[in-house]
Amino acid sequence: MTKNIAIFASGSGSNAGNIIRYFMDSKTVSVRLVISNRSKAFVLERAKALQVPSEVFLCEEWESGGANVLAVLKKYDIGFIVLAGFLVRVPDAILHAYPNKIINIHPSLLPKHGGKGMYGDYVHEAVVAAAETETGITIHYINECYDEGKVIRQVACPVLPADTPKDVANKVHALEYEYYPRVIEEIVLQGE
Ligand code: GAR
Question: What percent of the chain stands above pLDDT 70?
Fold first, then answer.
């Protein structure tokens, strides 16, 4: 049976687009819905171009407990949630409705450079400022605490002394595009 997934994203959505394309012809996993908290997020354009329905829920909908989000997830028969650059705290009601069925990707080797306020380019700037010799990606389950859920997979890449935050971002994005769809597939099908 096909497992329906929803992607939550706040920004550009390059990972969301990559994941949608990866599962386009899949018989086991279907990206049924994209949800964003920003009506101008570019991820919405990507979803439209790739013919995936999208819904926007603004700040107050999340802060008031996410009942409307949950209703839409039920409507689309969503069984698994993938966060891809989603910058809002997922309400407890959704966490409880999807135990071990929500995963996130963070653009560093957690616990390094994680936590509140650490997202996107801020992470790569911190990695360069700390003169790290490696960074990478962490794919993990989410729980009530930012970036602290059980780690599913980490993949590292080198950071060279001359690398700028942009260089680091490019390396990390390449890892994200290669690994995130495959790990999603493994985890979703494993839960069958
Ligand atoms: C990705 O690099 C993702 O790992 C990061 O935001 C970027 C979104 O890019 N997520 C976080 O920092 C979460 N703390 P995208 O919108 O192009 O997919």
Answer: 98
Do residues 135 and 109 lie in contact, with contact meaning Cβ atoms separated by under 8 Å?
yes
| Distances 156 to 86, 137, 168 between C-alpha atoms, Å | 22, 7, 11
Closest CA to 119 of 7, 10, 3: 10
Which ligand 1 atom sits nearest the alpha carbon of residue 84?
A: 18
- Describe the strand order of the beta sheet including 102-106 as a list of residue ranges: 54-56, 29-36, 3-8, 80-83, 102-106, 134-141, 151-158
Structural domains of the chain, ranges and CATH numbers in brackets: 1-99 (3.40.50.170), 106-179 (3.40.50.170)
Q: How far is the centre of ligand 1, averaged over its atoms, from the C-alpha of 36 (Å)?
A: 13
Tell whether ligand 1 has an atom less than 6 A from the beta carbon of residue 119. Answer: yes
Whether the full predicted model's pTM is greater than 0.90, yes or no, is yes
CB neighbours (10 Å) of residue 175?
A: 18
**pLDDT tens per residue across span 92-121:** 999 999 999 999 999 999 999 998 889 999
**Would the CB of 14 count as within 6 Å of ligand 1?**
yes
